[in-house]
TrEMBL record:
Domain HTH cro/C1-type: 13-62
Protein name per the record: Transcriptional regulator
SMART domains noted in UniProt: HTH_XRE (SM00530)
Gene Ontology molecular function: DNA binding
Pfam families: HTH_26 (PF13443)
Organism: Hymenobacter gummosus
Family matches, as PROSITE patterns: HTH_CROC1
InterPro entries linked to this entry: Cro/C1-type_HTH, Lambda_DNA-bd_dom_sf
Amino acid sequence: MPIVINLDVVMAQRKMSLSELAEKVDLTLANLSILKTGKAKAVRFSTLEAICKALDCQPGDILEYR
C-alpha cells in the first residue's frame, strides 16, 4: 500500500509509549498496535484527531503517501 503510517516515529519523538498513547486516545492496545504496524486498512477521522491531539502533531506527520 502506498500509504505509510509513521506513528512509531512520532511516538519516539514525543517519548510516548504505545500503552500511554492507547490510554490517552481511548483505544485498545491491540487496535493501536495494528495501526502502528501499518496493518490497518482504514482509520477513523475521530481516531486520527485523538492521536494528533495526544501527540501534538498534524495528520501529515503520521500518514505519508509514497
